[in-house]
């Protein structure tokens, strides 16, 4: 055999050997990669979402609450007749409209200052906590508390309108009162922890995005079901604030989410305004008016100002 042929044979053998070694190397890399564990769902959450270190590890308890609308004309007529510096009308027994004769200075955004003022000027006003402010509409929204804030409930609201000087002009109030119920469901319930609520929000709803920050989590109530008796069953609920501006709500017992209601304020404002156009019903009672001739004037003033708020609110939303 000639030397050239032997040389070619060696080259071919080395080429085959190199190809074989390359395939062996690739197989080994794939085998090694197959042993790299996938990140757990907890690790995925902690990698993508900020603010988890600030969540409380406390084990909370809270009961379900039976509640019904407060009927002002039946139980609070004396108190409404003595509210300072205002004229009021209660429509359908459950919705209070009140207008100050002289505008009242609005406190700063500290919740304790709101409560102090409202305790003096608004019936059961200290039971409400600040929720949102709509500057362009001159509107402050407060929600009633029964131990904790009650979210997205038209029967537990306080709408406060200010003028351009930041003074309170008038307000609309609805409120709930706890019902007397002898039921095991009223016992304190063990609640899922704050971390678990965020975990379920992230993995079950797809509403959180990578880089989002959990800026606040606190406990409140959300209407679970409305009963035929007119009562509501309120369920403990985690309010999860994201990026200081987006609100999410997770059932604190079962862990499912409640849908967001971005039109809640506007829809309820519209309903309240409609009440004023139907203010001549049997369940409409005026307070602190000197004569009946003032009734139509008061309703008209309230209607026009709240209509302006609604128009500005619609532009904002």
Describe the protein.
The protein has helices at residues 3-34, 41-48, 72-75, 77-81, 111-121, 194-205, 264-277, 293-316; strands spanning 61-62, 65-69, 86-91, 95-105, 128-134, 139-146, 148-151, 157-162, 167-173, 176-178, 189-190, 214-226, 232-242, 246-251, 257-258, 285-287. The chain has 317 residues and is of the alpha+beta class. The chain has two domains: 42-63 and 180-258, Beta Barrel (Lipocalin), CATH 2.40.128.690; 71-174 and 263-316, TATA-Binding Protein (2-Layer Sandwich), CATH 3.30.310. The strands form two sheets. Strands 2, 3, 4, 5, 6, 7, 8, 9, 10, 12, 13, 14, 15 and 16 form a 14-stranded mixed β-sheet that branches. A two-stranded antiparallel sheet has the order 1-11. Helix 7 packs antiparallel against helix 8 (293-316). The longest helix is centred in the first third of the chain and has 32 residues, at 3-34. The radius of gyration is 31 Å and the shape is elongated. The protein starts with a helix and ends with a helix.
Name its key features.
317 residues, alpha+beta, Lipocalin, TATA-Binding Protein, 2 domains, 14-stranded mixed β-sheet, two-stranded antiparallel ribbon, 30% strand, elongated
Secondary structure blueprint with pairings:
Elements: H1 3-34, H2 41-48, E1 61-62, E2 65-69, H3 72-75, H4 77-81, E3 86-91, E4 95-105, H5 111-121, E5 128-134, E6 139-146, E7 148-151, E8 157-162, E9 167-173, E10 176-178, E11 189-190, H6 194-205, E12 214-226, E13 232-242, E14 246-251, E15 257-258, H7 264-277, E16 285-287, H8 293-316
Parallel strand pairs: 7-12
Antiparallel strand pairs: 1-11, 2-10, 2-13, 3-4, 3-16, 4-9, 5-6, 6-7, 6-8, 8-9, 12-13, 13-14, 14-15
Helix pairs in contact: 7-8
